[in-house]
């Protein structure tokens, strides 16, 4: 009896409302990130920037995000106050995001329409936006490990967060569908207006969920107790001496590459390579996110241990390998198969993302004094790798892919877009599954305590 009461403050399973309030806290980041990866390259090339300049804008944002995650993680580990960092980051995101998809403010002030000035302007606002995004992301991710030490509860929190990521993505495509239908892009100004309204709508919806999160979630009690117990701040070198840190970092990095690179090239692929209807640009991603949402919710009901984390991640990786092969080989005359492929992509994305995030919690365990550094350092690797990967791919992208398709049918069949959506995610999935196979996450039943309340009725 004594042992049970001693574990109550830290290992007692949490209820569904706590999971829900936590899960909605990343909605602003998720809906703006969805817009960032899905439409930024498309928007910048539509207003006249070259693919390479567009890639520079995205890379500047990713680099700023990467370094901000390290800095923010260290400060959170030192001083705590997750909710303050979350609120401050959300405020910066809300203020700056509309300028990422708006007109060139320095160009208007200086009365100069130089492409160099435009590239600089968009790069600057992209960096500011990503600094705020990083503060929100690291504080929210690290909070999981300080809300509870119960491993199944931690997976439930990650699953709920991932489920609302899918809701955010679907919300973005619904907004985009309405805006593109109401405002026709006949000029550069019309295109800027389209995306500015998408940004305004996304910010408004995301901020509503931030308020719900801040009102419904308490500052983690476990993090407060750190200052009064032996759980002091863990130095960086402690993590660098653990093999599991490098394994989890590699798996998380590869998983983010799978999701972000495939998302960035999905719209290009269905329109330019497969030449499907314009509606497919919204319908195919919608199918992916609906399937991911369903799987993420179902994953909350499973009692978790290390063996199951590895098994479910491997299942997701194998599914993505088959999907990548199908995308590489899919001919245009049976492009409707892309709808079926998108179902499996959605399932694989959820399996890989939820388990990859949960592996971070296994790595951290009870060492919550270093949780923000772990989340920040892994996010740094994620941002830098994604930024560089997209820069390299986009630098080889044709400025007029449709003309290239018509005139060079054979070379277009294995286009940069097809590589970005098929080969890169499949290869990353294969390496991720290989690394996971050699992990030692533990397989005992101590990690599989159920939630206080079922998340589904």
Automatic annotation (TrEMBL):
Gene3D superfamilies: MFS general substrate transporter like domains (1.20.1250.20). Keywords: Membrane, Transmembrane, Transmembrane helix. It comes from Camelina sativa (False flax). It holds the Pfam family MFS_2. Signal peptide: none annotated. The gene is LOC104699906. Belongs to the major facilitator superfamily. This is Major facilitator superfamily domain-containing protein 12. The chain crosses the membrane at residues 20-42, 54-72, 84-110, 122-143, 163-183, 195-215, 244-270, 282-299, 311-330, 337-357, 363-381, 419-439.
